[in-house]
Amino acid sequence: MADTSGIPADMIFCNANIITMDEKRPGAELVAVSGNKIIGVGGNDDLEKFKDANTKIIDCGSQTIIPGFNDAHCHPLSFAATLLYVDCSPSKAAKYDEKCLDEKSPPTRWELDEASPDNPVILIHYTGNGCVLNSLALKHAGIYSISADPQGGHIGREPDSREPNGVITGRNELVEKRIPGIDQEELKACVKLATGQLLSFGITSVQDTGWNNNLGHWQTLRRLKEDGHLPLRVSMMIGTNALAEFQGAGLSMESGDCNLRIGGIKIALDESTGNPNPPQEELDYYALKAYEAGFRIAFHVHDIVALETTLASLEYICKKIPRPDHRHRLEHCAICPPGLMRKLKATEAMVVTQPAFLLYFGESYIDAVPSKKLSWLFPMGSLSKLGLKTAASSDSPMVPCNPLIGISAAVARKTETNKIIAPLEAVSPLEALRMYTYWGAYASFEENIKGSISPGKLADLVVLSEDPTLTAPESIPGIKFILTMVDGKIAWQA
Fold first, then answer.
1. 243: three-class secondary structure by DSSP
2. Distance from first CA to last CA of the chain, Å, rounded?
3. pTM for this entry
4. What whole-number distance in Å separates Cα of residue 468 and Cα of residue 402?
């Protein structure tokens, strides 16, 4: 038995199928917890070594224990805010998604007026890069026929009258500035709902990757932590434009602790400027500025052009400032040709991917991507074979945050209508599980304290009804969550 302490355990899980994600001991039957740490991992016959009169024993009845899930790319406060809204996402109400509508286009202001003539209504696209407003909402937002398009955005209009039709694409600044903000009580309420959902899916750590995360966002997260409203561990990326204010506040890479920390800087010039393909010189400037300040960089990579400029920028900054184990990240990187994959390997960067997109958006990919390029989509199998480290995530609230859905998608690679996309790029259930646990911790430089069930690491654990590595891929989402432990405490239980 491996152990780090001779003191009695507060809690022992035994008679379990433990998938440790620790190469030194991949499987076990027992895990002992004292305080917020794992103090022992072993077999059932090791029970007496850590037991005393006060130890709580949990017999798992051969259920499976895994490390806590780590959602390596999501937007937790945005997800929380959506819980105050009506959910019209594909997973909840497919008839509201334009790809499922007969017209294959979003509704207009007049159609929303029919549904709600007396209240302002905003229907936000799942990407966050578009919305539809009814007439009252347009009036509140101050958008009229004479209004100019916002930078990086477009106001849809009737061809003859130039009257806004309610559809706003690209940046939504005109709208965002006029939407009433969530007050503190609403924020606490929706964060409570959100954390309840996340914990019920076994998620014990999230990585907040908003391109516009500023000092106020950090302070909000810190208040929620201090008030006990946010039991999950959070690693927060800061936005490119917020670098100076964080430096002015004395905050830098890895400021904070294992509960709330700064995990790097997010560069998403396409999203922050509205230019889908910003100049190479501009990307290089911001990347070097962040790297000189000691930050690891997460690049938003949404297409092949962005991948090419990102790889060139990585090569540029790493030549300027050589550092071992920099762990720069490519967020999304949903399409990667073989030639660019070799260049990606040379940069030693990580990829943070979203396998569940194959399920929820797969039909759109099949329609939009030429058949000869479909094999380039979400090439998790090729990334793994090349030895590239890949973490997985949901990009919530884009899609549901349940990691088991993502694991199933990474293995089965099926769309909602059971079409298979690039089956050779599938990974094994164990590798998919690793992407949501160990590699997630590695992506935030925290693999020394979490991501595996090992003595000395934080006691963040999940109990499942079945073993996802021995379950048919399509059945993995049906596995039940039994218990979630964070910091040595049972935070959620079925």
1. helix
2. 30
3. 0.90
4. 13
